[in-house]
Amino acid sequence: MKSALLAAVATSALVLAAPAAAQGVKIGILNDQSGVYADYGGKWSVEAARMAIEDFGGEVLGQKIELVTADHQNKPDLATSIARRWYDVENVDMITELTTSSVALAIHELSKEKKKIDIVVGAATSRLTGDACQPYGFHWAYDTRALGVGTGGALTKAGGDTWFFLTADYAFGYALEKDTSEIVTANGGKVVGSVRVPLNSSDFSSFLLQAQSSKAKIVGLANAGLDTTNSIKQASEFGIVASGQKLAGLLMTLAEVNGLGLQAAQGLVLTEGYYWDVNDKSRNLGERFLKRTGRMPNMIQAGTYSATLSYLKAVKAAGTKDPDAVVKKLKELPVDDDFAQGGKVLENGRMVHDMYLFEVKKPSESKKPWDYYKLLATVPGDKAFFTAKESGCPLTK
């Protein structure tokens, strides 16, 4: 009788536990909220995801949508520990943003193991939908290939045919240097050298001296966030631009331009997947975000809005949050929102959309707050990104 009673209690516990685990849709924002990339994505990406959930109505399939966030501090081991707990204990259904390529690659592998969806926005490496692709992984907003095509291709065609790279010393920097180098050489240019720079460096002097002595026409900054702004500031002190070399911010966003100010950033050429003043839809998103936060979003924050919204649309279309069914819908549905119009998701998880080549305005050209960019060219998505077959993703073979 005692055994029967214990069995009944255990069965009741399971019955009670099962619905609790299944209830609600839970989305996690895992990114850098206190370090070198805190302005690049950070709490602003959290707000963008919150905005997408509100725009969707706050629930899906009759279930409440919950948002959880954490700071991975740019440490893959910490990020993996958080994500594992989210997946195993807290029933998180999808993780997004994932700034920092080393972190994104680690979570990509964990998501594959757990059969959970991740949508990378903040990390850049094209490997995420290339040799490291997996069935439950997606990549939104941009990647190193698209940045290379936009900025690298444009500057080389304009006569910047010799390059020296200051490269962030981890997966993102290597991928950005590699992808840009391939575009440079394909357009008749030459890479004359490069130097690896530790993440979150405060002193770029020795690296900039090497770039200066290379005599390269273009100094490619294969870094991001505070590393980019600090290297630009110190390059000015060394007179690199004044002496005739040109800086290329290979991953630079509106957040870094705002941090530098137009006086320091004017004339820089860069590529983004979103700018608030490109069209009516981008303006709608930008102005609503500005009202909430006091700032315009960059492509990471706007991309997080789009990734969150697209996931929720896929759950609704699938009629379930089962990952396999949602993956299928994510790859079927067009991406048409205030971030991207006419976007599509390839078999390897790459979301393809137009990219934009900009030049930062002079202070005298800016007519209002956040009026920072002149549009030089629109790069069609099918030109900016690898096709699924070109990517090297094993899923496409």
UniProtKB/TrEMBL annotation:
Keyword hit for Signal: yes
Signal sequence region: 1-17
Leucine-binding protein domain: residues covered: 25-361
GO annotation terms (biological process): amino acid transport
Annotated keywords: Amino-acid transport, Signal, Transport
Superkingdom, taxonomy of origin: Bacteria
PANTHER family: LEUCINE-SPECIFIC-BINDING PROTEIN, PERIPLASMIC BINDING PROTEIN OF ABC TRANSPORTER FOR NATURAL AMINO ACIDS
Family, as annotated: Belongs to the leucine-binding protein family.
Stated name of the protein: ABC transporter permease
Natural source organism: Bradyrhizobium nitroreducens
